[in-house]
Amino acid sequence: MYKLLLDVFFYSLMVGAGETYFAAYSLSLGHSELQAGALITLPIVFGGIAQLLSPFLIKTVGSYKPIVLTGVIGQIVCLSSLLILGPWFKNQYTLLFTVVAIYWIMAMGITPAWTSWVSKLIKPKDIRHFFSLRNSFGGIGTLVGLIISGVMLQYKLVFFNFSTFQFIFIICFIARFLSFICLVVHPKVEFVKPSKMNFSFAPLGVEVKDQFLHQFFIFSSVFKIGVFFSASFFTPYMLVYLKFSYMEYTSILVSSFVGRILVGYILRKRLSNYDINFLYLIAAIGICIVPVMWLMLGSVLAIVTLELMTGVMWGIFEICFLVTIFEEIPTDKQSVYMTRYNFWHTLSIGIGAILGITCFYNFKEYANIYFLIFIVSTVLRGLTIFTFPRKHIKTDLKLFSNSFRSLGIRPGIGMVARPMWQLLKNLKK
Question: Could you tell me if residue 251 is inside a domain?
Answer without folding.
Answer: yes
